[in-house]
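Deviation from plan, reported transparently: iron/sulfur cluster complex.
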Amino acid sequence: MNPFKFISATDSNAAIAAHHQNSRAAFLAGGTNLMDLMKEHVALPEAVIDLGRIGLKEIKETAKVVSLGALASNTFTANHSLVRKYFPLLSKAILAGASAQIRNMATNGGNLLQRTRCSYFYDISMPCNKRKPGSGCAAMEGFNRMHAIFGWSDHCVAVYPSDMAIALSAMDARIKVSSDGSQREIEMKDFHLLPGTHPEKDNSLSSGELITSIELPKNSFGKHWAYVKVRDRNSYAFALVSVAVGLQINNNIIESAKIAMGGVAHKPWRALKAEAFLKGKSATTANFIKAAAMEMAAAKPLSHNQFKIEMSKKTLVSAMEVALKG
Ligand code: SF4
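Because the crystal trials were delayed, the predicted structure below was used instead.
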């Protein structure tokens, strides 16, 4: 690990100010990803700004929204009464991720900012445009079984690893961020980016912006939801494919469908074609199969992950069937 300066911020303004003084600083929340990246010499911050004392851990509600503090732990969030009451889909997705020990340390903001688990990204002897822009992509012709089937570019084929964020995507969350006295909200669909020609940039945050909370609109698909994750082993593994579904159903007619997929793209992948097809249709397995086929028709597999297309179709249908049962 390289030497770095350690700064313990006392509040969010102090943390942001410290970052403005050194654009090569990194915010430290739970540290469950940053520490690994630093130990492997993938992240080389000149300073680490510890957020442990600045608060932002509260979970609270207003009439229309539940707000998750950015520095609340994943465990606290998944088990919170408001989250369990209004967003069991989110609880399920969080608890499908990592291990209990990691969830105890990991924060909501940090979960959104975790970086890809592409093995070439972590191996500094290999070319990787995300780690070192312009160096190439070892995964393109390498072992790309875990990689993307949607939205990839010639510069990067990595996938985004979070479970929590897939549920947040289906729930149309908004991310509140703060910087230098100003605040803004970013819609979940705009927060993470596809790789394009700049895979080094995972999200739409500007340098020094700090996530302060995640805002969740109280929705009406409370009963009909599902999170289904397919992985190589049943615990402590990233998704090959995951699906978060929320259905609003009235008299067996789907009034609206919200579907997001994980393990298939550089960001949570909203299944917009499937959603559009299902709107106004009967909630039947036949329609779920058609919707899944429609969504997956545009997938572009790599040399080692053709299997993800059939796996995605089956996972989509399975998630929708679970959601229908309620
Ligand atoms: Fe790097 Fe992306 Fe290629 Fe992996 S897929 S080696 S993260 S550029």
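The longest strand covers residues 241-250. We consider this an acceptable substitute for the interim report.
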